[in-house]
Amino acid sequence: MEALLKQVKASFDAWPQxxxxxxxxxxxxxxxxxxxxxxxxxxxxxxxxxxGKEIIVAHFNHHLRSDADLDASLVxxxxxxxxxxxxxxxWQEPSHKNTESLAREARYHFxxxxxxxxxxxxxxxAHHSNDLAETxxxxxxxxxxxxxxxxxxxxxxxxxxTDQGQGVATDLVRPLLSISKAELLDYAEHFKLEYREDxxxxxxxxxxxxxxxxxLPWLEGENPQFLANLESMTQAxxxxxxxxxxxxxxxxxxxxxxxxxxxxxxxxxxxxxxxxSRRRTFLTIFIEERLIADLGSYNKRLLDQLDQLICDTAxxxxxxxxxxxxxVQRNYDQIRIFNRSKELGPEExxxxxxxxxxxxxxxxxxxxxxxxxxIFRKEQVSHKLLSEAQCVLPLxxxxxxxINYLLRHRQPGDQIRLQDASGRIFHKKLARVMIDQKLxxxxxxxxxxxxxxxxxxxxxxxxxxxxxxxxxxxxxxxxLFLYQTIEQISKV
Length: 492
What we know:
Helix content: 25-40%
Number of helices: 15
Number of domains: 3
Distance between the termini: 86 Å
CATH architecture of the largest domain: 3-Layer(aba) Sandwich
CATH superfamily of the largest domain: HUPs
CATH topology of the largest domain: Rossmann fold
Largest sheet: 6 strands, mixed
Strand order of the largest sheet: 3-2-1-4-6-5
Radius of gyration: 29 Å
């Protein structure tokens, strides 16, 4: 078996999903890399153990060169000759600004279209070891993150989006990552493979071309094993990131309270219990996995600022502006991260600082100078305490799991569970309930809401005049949520 075919076969054999995969969509540009891989894939699928698997070719014409149609013609002719199913897409409105990024976005939308149409979940691309080196060098030049040091991964999973906005869960496989450009060129010459040269690759306008033409040859001249060494380093970085990611995910419930579209709350006391190195590593992972899609990018300065908000004890209330209208607001032991554009409008504005995560049991927590709340074991609550509480809510809590309740004021789209006279349970917008009851705006904005980790409203404090059924019956409750006002407390 030819050497490159052995390496490609080894890449797929090491991929856990290979045996049950029957269709693979492969991105083919018509250039050297993708034409060599396509030829290797045809040979791979011709092996007896792989019969029944199908390659579906996807070519995207960016229309950025006058001869781009010749690329499509070559791919189409090759597919006809080998009787392969193929799709050809076109960039209808090519952009000459931020071209590389926008072209990639358009191309991957097309790949998602092909994956959806062919009912496949696997996308194969021809990235090789030189691509890996170029990408990492560019990231180091421009600045990168812990996750960015992992470079291009041989196996990864992504949600690609079609032109219609449909999400497509996709396994990405890059079987050439251990193979150099020179090896691909030797293969093409040996088997007399036809491929197209991209004339823009010789231009020095793009940073990637300058890295390819100047930096990488110099580095390989210093050490011929540079590409192999770089692949080993990125693999070690990927494994280190994954190990820290798994550790972070095991603790995320204690560190972060998700508010759905309304952002997140970081629990400062829990973050401060971490060592400095682990806290900063976890903050990096939180940004990479939760915030980066909304922010677009971040730098070390943002990481330092978030870390300072967690650790600084001098000023209880601080704020921080983020890109894309996101904002960080610290209020005592909580740091809330939210998008200002998704907040309530002028008619429905509320105080953003009024958020209080409830993560401890059997302890009173003051939410302001007039109100306190607590979650107490049912057996420990006396009849006197029950009679003095303005609100009592039964809860069924498994103490082996993180305690994640939140006390907050209302937000856009809040809905409350109600019950009519016949016992029917339904949901209604909280704003409409308050308006129907003719509650003044200042009263509406002062009402507290107890919500669970799914952001479901469990209680209004004080209670509004509506039949709001409890989710857990008193009979099955293990804990009781209590709410008291200062007037009631003064009687104790």
